[in-house]
Design brief:
The complex is a heterodimer. Helix content of chain A is 42%, strand content 22%. Chain A has helices at residues 16-29, 54-62, 69-72, 79-86, 94-105, 129-135, 153-162, 179-192, 205-208, 212-219, 244-253, 266-274, 290-298, 310-320, 329-342, 345-349; strands at residues 3-9, 34-37, 40-41, 44-47, 50-53, 75-76, 110-114, 139-144, 166-174, 197-202, 210-211, 222-225, 233-234, 236-239, 257-262, 277-283, 303-305. In chain B, the strands form six sheets. Chain B has a seven-stranded mixed sheet, sandwiched between helices. Classes of the chains: A alpha/beta, B alpha/beta. Chain A binds chain B through residues 148, 150, 175-178, 180-181, 185, 202-203, 205, 225, 243-245, 248-249, 252-255, 264-267, 270-271, 274-276, 289-295, 297-298, and chain B through 109-113, 115-116, 251, 254-255, 258-264, 267, 269, 486-490, 492, 514, 537-538, 574-579, 598-599, 601, 679-680, 703, 705-707.
């Protein structure tokens, strides 16, 4: 085997799962024998008769991997495991992980190792990212976002810890407005500190988008029109409680949004469907009149009705926003495109 | 009459020879029966072809079982059948060379998705056959002069010279009923319904050319093609007055209107602006609509705003005087020689100035004398005759005198015969002779004022437009498409300024300092005092969070300002990305104004102008125009604000360079007309200096559409 690369991050939801899968897919396209390994997962899903990590399931299908899913995802955090570990009733699962890893590596040129939420994850089991990189002898690629200060402190600390095991950092989800700042200040600074920037990937709201179907399932709401458009992808939430003039001004500025409003607010609903809106949630259980629903249908905007109040609806949608997993194929495809375009892939694999 | 020169809408709606009534019914009380009856009872003198598959004869007319059975061509088809039969009926009626269709039937877009689809099919068919379709879901058309009552309104109205377009059928029936009692006559009445094909703009255009229409009235709830509406209105209002009620002027009203029509109406501000800009007289309630219409319908034109009031009662005279001042109407006293003559003719207690009070015991002869004497005073532009019924007054005889007086008077005459039973016959006589009578004198004054304003408007020269050739359209196109492709819809200040510069706006030179060292270096090359502003893509209102420092006089100040600005922003807007601080020379003196634009769903670019600072924020002293703005309107919108005198200079101050300001407005108008992608922008503030000095925009903001 040439190289095993751990893709980790210091914050959750940096886009690390998609980037892992993208790297593996790119290698596969090049005709390399590539493996995938998710030593420790935090999102258990039932696969066959066993609970494994969701990323591993997607990777197995997407990369057409022959390895047993139990090897691809040897440890996944369940309530039961958590309790046992806290009570000291089990020993570290590191052996299990090592064994699975060795089996995965057979006949592979490269193995991409997907990290958990962030590097420290799993420390209580003795299998944090830091532990695994050392014990499995991995090279690490760190995926980071910038915080509000436009700083990368955690990256520097990690570099100190991982030293040469860290290949470099991919800065992901960078807003176009701060791109110049990143290129002119952050990257030269990182270089000076011995951290190589492997790529800067611009923010792509479509990756964080969720479908109207997901929202509708999450809200337990009723679809009153636009059933054919539930695959519409929503990127932002807006609330329509203001007067229509202000609403229109605000609505025009936000693309691919969902608008939450009351059923009696025909004006808000019309303002929403005149602008880039992918769906409307009507709260309070009042169904808008037929004329308005006809307009929504005409424009391909699904309208769903719930008895809940606006705050509850926002809270529920927010809870799934930006935290979507990679199971939807359009996300992986887009991820591959972005990585190919913006990341120095050869450097990672050399 | 030759109507061949008329506009797009075929005359067949109002002057048909052969009308087919598809869905004629034998059952009294059904719409299909009402319409047929109305056509017959209205004494339509052409051929009527009722169509009903199950009847052979209705109301004495031979019935056709299908459209195909009709052997001749059809000029006008009226459909009162369920929606799906309307669609198939259009194919059949097309074979009869029929180009004018009224669809009375409901059940289209107003009932939901299925109906909306049928309406789309209807539109498609209309296009395919080149048909003009009125409705669906409307009351029909009434044209008293050509004896066409293709509607289910209760009665044929009186013939007159007022035409009425209404987006509400129900309101129309109420108004018609009331007009009969008021003695108001109509030329053409149109119920628009869902406006699937023909809308208010088409009829406005048609009525503008119609020789039988003197005044156009309308009730509308929304306009979809605002720019086309304005273009047509601009032409029509120069030929005849257009009085419109735009319903939904409050947010509650607007909400009701959008539920009713299923379309998003433009803002009330935009409607008010568009009406003002095109000379449409905006009316706020139905009573005013007809009060003003009556004034216009008498066809007499005032040259100026001087009114003389003749009254037999003091109180109503005072009310007229109050109303005059409120409506900017002058009540000046008659000329000296006229006063002398009045003194001879009237009792000693009469008031000879204006209002002229001829005292409670006045009979018709005193009205006649006073009117004839006052007529000699050419400085009066209009007459208002007030009468309250006293024991010796004979309202009918006074009305007779007014009618006689009017027969050779070219100046407008208004009457206020006040009361009920005692004045009724007099009012009827006035109505018959097209002399507007009002219940109260203030309404009469309002009507006169509308007449005065309208004729003042028609005397204005046609608007002129200016296009600047020195703009760099390509560059703006490039910036916009580049930003949109990157998903940047709120442009950075730098990009926004580049766009404005390409359209001829000047900004003081500005430099980004990312650190104090850079700030000092930059400041060293500039002339103090300086202005420093935060540079951050996440902050739109910089001064609100302490992101702006002005009047910085030295390098120490630059260092202090850099620290203060960056820490203020960090504290008050912790999530904002700070790119640095912009430094520029400060423009001293002059006046600050604001220019801005938002896009209205009906009318498009609505440009705002106002004096900066508290004048805009607290006093809301701003004016609006819809772009493209003609040169004259650029000037008007500047003069319109209350604080205009401040710009012209008070207490020895120099006036700002107004031409520079007009030019900025026109360039802005050109920019937003060229680029519909710009949905919002602000130049705030713009620093205007006296003539000879350059004026600058200091800050710029542009938002692009994110669809």
């Amino acid at each position: 085997m040439k190289k095993a690369i751990y893709v980790g991050s210091l914050l959750p939801y940096t886009g690390k799962s998609i980037i892992s899968l993208a790297l593996a897919s790119i290698l596969k396209e090049k005709g390399e024998e590539v493996g995938y390994f998710k030593p420790y997962g935090k999102f258990p899903v039932l696969y066959g008769d066993t609970y494994v990590d969701q990323d591993a399931v997607v990777a197995k299908e997407r990369l057409d991997l022959k390895s047993d899913i139990k090897e691809l995802s040897p440890v996944v955090l369940t309530q039961d495991l958590k309790l046992k570990a806290l009570k000291g009733k089990i020993s570290s699962p590191i052996k299990k992980i090592k064994k699975a890893f060795n089996s995965i590596c057979v006949k592979k040129e490269y193995v991409i190792v997907g990290g958990a939420n962030f590097l420290a994850d799993g420390a209580f089991l003795g299998i944090s990212g830091y532990d695994l990189i050392r014990k499995l002898n991995l090279q690490a690629v760190i995926v980071e976002r910038l915080d509000a200060d436009l700083l990368i402190d955690p990256v520097l600390v990690t570099k100190e810890k991982l030293k040469d095991r860290m290949i470099g950092v991919i800065l992901n989800r960078i807003k176009p407005e701060v791109m110049d700042y990143v290129n002119e200040l952050i990257i030269p600074f990182l270089n000076k500190k011995g951290v190589e920037a492997l790529g800067v990937i611009p923010d792509d709201p479509s990756l964080a988008a969720i479908t109207m179907r997901e929202i509708n399932e999450n809200l337990n709401s009723k679809i009153v029109t636009g059933e054919d458009y539930l695959d519409n992808l929503v990127e932002k939430i807006m609330i329509g409680a203001m007067d229509v003039e202000s609403a229109l001004k605000l609505f025009r500025k936000v693309r691919n949004k969902i608008v939450i409003t009351g059923g009696h607010r025909s004006d808000i609903i019309l303002a929403a469907i005149e602008t880039s809106t992918k769906g409307i949630v009507v709260t309070g259980g009042v169904v808008p009149n037929d004329l308005i629903l006809a307009r929504a249908e005409e424009r391909g905007v699904p309208v769903i009705v719930t008895d809940d109040d606006t705050f509850t609806v926002v809270d529920r949608i927010e809870s799934i926003f930006g935290k979507t997993r990679i199971k939807e194929p359009h996300r992986v495809q887009r991820g591959i495109e972005l990585v190919k375009k913006n990341v120095n892939v050869n450097r990672i694999f050399e | 009459m030759d109507h061949s020169s008329r506009t797009a809408i075929t005359d067949s709606f109002f002057f048909p020879q052969r009308i087919a009534v598809i869905g004629a019914s034998a059952e009294a009380g059904k719409v299909g029966n009402d319409i047929l009856r109305n056509l017959i009872e209205g004494k339509f003198d052409g051929e009527i072809y009722p169509v009903n598959p199950k009847r052979d004869e209705i109301l004495g007319l031979n019935v056709y079982h299908s459209i195909g059975e009709i052997s001749s061509d059809i000029d006008l088809a009226v459909f009162i059948v369920p929606p799906r039969y309307v669609i198939s009926g259009l194919d059949d009626i097309a074979k009869k060379n029929c180009k004018a269709v009224i669809v009375i039937s409901a059940g289209f877009k107003e009932v939901g998705a299925e109906g909306a689809q049928l309406e789309q099919e209807l539109v498609k068919k209309a296009k395919q056959y080149g048909m003009k379709v009125l409705g669906p879901n409307c009351l029909g058309i009434i044209s008293p002069s050509s004896k066409v009552n293709a509607s289910f309104a209760a009665e044929m109205p009186i013939q007159g010279n007022i035409s009425f377009i209404s987006q509400s059928g129900a309101l129309l029936t109420a108004v018609l009923d009331w007009s009969m009692e008021e003695g108001i006559g109509f030329s053409k009445i149109i119920s628009l319904g869902n406006k699937a094909v023909l809308d208010e703009i088409d009829f406005l255009e048609y009525l503008g050319e119609d020789p039988d229409t003197e005044v156009i009235l309308g009730y509308i709830e929304g306009v979809e093609e605002g720019q086309r509406f304005m273009k047509v209105a601009q032409q029509v209002t120069r030929k005849k007055p257009v009085l419109l009620i735009k319903a939904g002027s409050t947010s509650a009203g607007a909400r009701a209107a959008s539920s009713h029509t299923g379309t998003l109406a433009g803002s009330d501000k935009a409607f008010a602006t568009a009406f003002k800009q095109t000379g449409i007289i905006r009316i706020h309630n139905v009573a005013d609509l007809f009060d003003l219409a009556k004034g216009f319908a008498q066809k007499r034109i005032p040259r100026g705003n001087k009114l003389v009031v003749i009254t037999n009662a003091g109180g109503p005279g005072i009310l007229a005087a109050d109303a005059s001042e409120k409506n900017k109407i002058q009540l000046q006293p008659p000329k000296t020689e006229i006063i002398a003559e009045l003194k001879e003719a009237l009792p000693p207690t009469a008031a000879l100035f204006n209002p002229v009070d001829i005292i409670g015991d006045a009979r018709e002869d005193r009205y006649k004398n006073a009117l004839n004497i006052l007529k000699k005073d050419r400085s009066f532009d209009g007459f208002l005759v007030i009468l309250t019924p006293q024991s010796m007054t004979d309202a009918y005889k006074v009305a007779e005198e007014i009618v006689k007086f009017s027969s050779n008077c070219k100046r407008p005459i208004f009457a206020a015969l006040m009361g009920g039973k005692l004045v009724r016959r007099g009012i009827e006589l006035l109505n018959k002779n097209n002399i507007p009578n009002f219940e109260f004198p203030d309404e009469a004054v309002k009507s006169f004022a509308a007449l005065v304003n309208y004729h003042k408007f028609t005397r204005k020269p046609q608007p002129t437009y200016r296009e600047y050739e020195d703009v760099d359209k390509e560059k703006v196109k490039e910036i916009i498409s580049d930003s949109m492709s990157k998903g940047m819809f709120n442009l950075s200040e730098v990009k926004a300024k580049e766009i404005f510069k390409a359209y001829g706006f000047d900004f003081p030179e500005s430099h980004l300092a990312r650190s104090i060292d850079e700030a000092v270096q930059i400041a060293d090359k500039l002339k103090f005092p300086l202005v420093m502003k935060i540079s951050s893509p996440d902050i739109l209102h910089k001064s609100d969070i302490g992101g702006v420092k002005v009047n910085i006089k030295n390098l120490e100040g630059v260092i202090r300002a850099f620290m203060e600005i960056t820490t203020n922003v960090k504290r008050k807007s912790p999530k904002a990305a700070i790119l640095g601080v912009d430094i520029q020379e400060m423009i001293t003196g002059g006046k600050e104004v604001i220019l801005g634009m938002t896009r209205d769903p009906s009318f498009g670019p609505l440009i705002m102008f106002g004096l900066g600072g508290i004048y805009v924020e607290v006093l809301k002293d701003v004016s609006f125009r819809v772009a493209p703005i003609p040169v004259e309107e650029a000037q008007n919108m500047v003069r319109e604000i209350n604080s205009y005198p401040l710009l012209a200079g008070v207490r020895g101050e120099k006036s700002i360079d107004f031409n520079a300001l007009y030019e900025m407005i026109l360039r802005l108008s050109q920019l937003v007309t060229d680029f519909p992608e710009i949905i919002e922008l602000d130049l705030n503030p713009v620093k205007l200096l006296p003539r000879g000095k350059k004026s600058y925009a200091l800050d710029a903001r542009i938002t692009l559409i994110s669809n």
